[in-house]
């Protein structure tokens, strides 16, 4: 019965048949990720050595759980292996986080990451690195993750294939101050909270589902950068909300040229920064060609919330659980609805403990 359910669920999303979803409730193109099956328990918060996170991800095929909670302070980037499942939700309260360096899935495949905090920040002196890098990777899903203080990008997915980022917080990038950069695809961005980035929320040069996201305090939000590539975009039930750093609220859709085909429905823009959620419909997308139906047959089925409902749901549940001081700070700025928030260059400027990283 489970296989039959998965078959029809994947058909509805236009995805190839696999025997099971990445996990119950997984959606979109990354939901075909198979992850790992060999149990491995992280027992140490040290940067390296037996029982550490670095040790756990060094071998393909592992299904990783956590017997410890707190931050792992990384002295160098961590490279993931293929076929991994990282179950951050298994960590004791207050959960697990990685800080100070890039986590890379570059060139790897079949990776499932859930409930993990990835916070790069200025502890990383390499300005060419991102908080999470999945360039040229395939079959990757991030769900209920918190990605903050990215230096080059928060999420780098250039050349990535079959990607889902869902129910996650992508916020407060420093350095380039960019959210995410995706090329190749296809990709699904679902019920994410994007906060206080200059641009790339995301930059997507790919066939894309962008459904029930909330974007706050942007300078440019959904972007294709006037690419010469021919791509299709399903933009449904998203809420764009201007904040103190927003210089042009009309840049909710940025550099969307006539090479793009866009199905836009149920999107809202709150541009007045008055502390009240009172946006208006925003479904005119630059000079893109208007599509009368989604390019992907599963997009309508994913869009179960209105933009207003997405605002409530995403603010309540996005990011790693339990919600820590960094995510609480991010969410509070969004709740101000235009009166609070800033695009930053240093995580310490948040005023949070532990040089801005917060304390787990």
TrEMBL record:
PANTHER family for the chain? PECTATE LYASE C-RELATED (PTHR42970:SF1)
Which residue positions does the secretion signal occupy? 1-20
Name assigned to this protein: Polysaccharide lyase family 1 protein
Gene Ontology molecular function: any one: metal ion binding
Q: Which SUPFAM superfamilies match?
A: Pectin lyase-like (SSF51126)
Q: Which domain of life is it from?
A: Eukaryota
Give UniProt keywords alphabetically: Glycoprotein, Lyase, Metal-binding, Signal
For this protein, the record's InterPro entries field holds:
Pectin_lyas_fold, Pectin_lyase_fold/virulence, Polysaccharide_Lyase_1
């Amino acid at each position: 019965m489970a296989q039959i359910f998965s078959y029809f669920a994947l058909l509805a999303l236009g995805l190839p048949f696999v025997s099971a979803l990445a996990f119950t409730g997984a959606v979109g193109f990354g939901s075909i990720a198979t992850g790992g099956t060999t149990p491995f328990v992280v027992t140490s918060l040290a940067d390296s050595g037996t029982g550490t996170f670095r040790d756990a991800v060094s071998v393909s095929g592992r299904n990783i759980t956590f017997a410890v909670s707190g931050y792992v302070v990384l002295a160098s980037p961590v490279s993931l292996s293929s076929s991994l499942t990282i179950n951050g939700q298994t960590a004791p309260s207050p959960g697990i986080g990685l800080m100070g360096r890039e986590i890379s899935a570059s060139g790897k495949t079949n990776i499932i990451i859930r409930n993990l905090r990835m916070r790069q920040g200025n502890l990383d002196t390499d300005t060419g690195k991102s908080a999470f890098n999945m360039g040229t990777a395939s079959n990757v899903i991030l769900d209920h993750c918190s990605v903050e203080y990215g230096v080059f990008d928060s999420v780098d997915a250039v050349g990535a294939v079959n990607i889902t980022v869902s129910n996650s917080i992508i916020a407060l990038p420093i350095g380039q101050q960019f959210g995410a950069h995706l090329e190749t695809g296809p990709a699904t961005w679902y019920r994410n909270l994007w906060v206080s980035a200059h641009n790339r929320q995301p930059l997507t040069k790919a066939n894309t589902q962008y459904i029930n996201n909330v974007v706050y305090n942007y300078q440019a939000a959904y972007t294709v950068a006037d690419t010469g590539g021919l791509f299709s975009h399903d933009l449904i039930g998203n809420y764009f909300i201007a904040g103190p750093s927003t210089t042009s609220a009309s840049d909710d859709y940025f550099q969307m040229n006539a090479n793009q085909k866009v199905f836009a429905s149920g999107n809202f823009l709150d541009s007045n920064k008055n502390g009240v959620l009172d946006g208006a419909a925003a479904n005119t997308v630059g000079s893109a060609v208007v599509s009368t139906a989604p390019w992907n047959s599963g997009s309508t089925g994913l869009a179960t919330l209105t933009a207003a409902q997405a605002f409530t749901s995403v603010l309540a549940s996005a990011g790693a659980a339990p919600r820590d001081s960094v995510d609480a700070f991010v969410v509070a700025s969004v709740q101000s609805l235009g009166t609070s928030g800033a695009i930053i260059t240093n995580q310490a400027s948040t005023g949070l403990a532990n040089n801005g990283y917060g304390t787990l």
